[in-house]
Amino acid sequence: MSGPDTVFRARDLAKVYKTGEVEVVALRDVSLEIARGEFVVLLGASGSGKSTLLNILGGLDVPTRGEVTFGDHVLTQANEAELTRYRREHVGFVFQFYNLIPSLTVHENVALVTDIASTPMDPDEAIALVGLSPRRDHFPAQLSGGEQQRVAIARAIVKRPDVLLCDEPTGALDYQTGKLVLEVIARINQELGTTAIVITHNASIAGMADRVIHLSDGRIQRIEHNEHKVSPSELSW
Predict the structure, then answer these.
(1) How confident is residue 4, by pLDDT bands cut at 50, 70 and 90?
(2) Least confidently predicted of 158-162, 190-194, 228-232
């Protein structure tokens, strides 16, 4: 049974994509629970099902079979309007590519999200959390890749989401810059208590998680608990 601190509960998830007569099975009988405030890494090679699982948890996709709940809400019974409201009110997304609006400054890119949030933080507070206050009036083209990714994180957290879902957030970054981005995600998890789920194919990143969920061929192969988490600065890959 799920406890009071369970954020996500998934049971027997399956996802099948169809293209004409061809079926691609992305998830096979996946069951898991994720607790409030937990830092979870979904680890697996390309095609293992980790992005499909993240998209279902984030309300961007629906399973072919199975059930997902977020708190008391059964996401798999929600219509599109309800899923849109769920994403707007509860979920922050960070993707490999930053999707910033080139004609807007850092502050404007972050502030844009506050218009659809019920209790947003001040944009400058979110920008400070990711260490970019000196860059608040810069445009994306004036920023490095790591700085742009940190703007994307600020944009995701300014609405105070319950969960932060990150799909390969360091995939387009070099080693040192990737560490800086991971430090920001860890800080958000620790200081705001935001549940963080991070997709990666990089096993070294797993050391900073509370739990590591290994996926392969659409299935959970094993789940590891980290007794001694390390900080992003201690990671090497």
Answers:
(1) low
(2) 228-232
CA-wise closest residue to 40 among 210, 215, 228: 210
Distance of CA 215 to the CA centre of its chain: 16
Q: Which amino acid appears at position 25 of this protein? A: V
- Beta-bridge partner residues of 11: 67
Q: Which two tokens stand for residue 210?
A: 């509370």
Q: What gap in Å lies between CA 29 and CA 157, rounded to an integer? A: 31
Domain containing 195 — which CATH number?
3.40.50.300
Residue 1 lies in a domain: no
Chain position carrying tokens 């502050």: 107
* Domain count for the chain: 1
Q: In which domain, by residue range, is 191 found? A: 6-234
Report residue 5 as tokens.
Answer: 């601190």
Task: Work out the number of other CB atoms within 10 angstroms of the CB of residue 170.
Answer: 25
